[in-house]
Amino acid sequence: MEFRDGALTVTFGNDDVFAKRVRDSGQLFRDIGARILGQPVNLVVKISGQVEERIDEAELKRRGLRERAIQNPAVRLVMEKTKAELLWVKQKDVL
Hints:
Elements: E1 2-4, E2 7-12, H1 17-24, H2 26-37, E3 42-47, H3 57-71, H4 73-82
Parallel strand pairs: 2-3
Antiparallel strand pairs: 1-2
């Protein structure tokens, strides 16, 4: 998001529902700009085609556990023999 020369430019990774909602809110931004800044704010919506993946720490931990499990020869053998898919991994509690 960038504000320069009376224009608020918002860039989205793809043309999704959020981009459409912001695009449809152009009049709202013009009105808010006129009231707060004394001049209307023009809204520009850009689509970059680059989507950033946001991952939280819990997801990183799950991915790490999954990778460790897949590296285990016993797990790999069972997966290959049964054509199984690894759905989730639970870390063993150490007492």
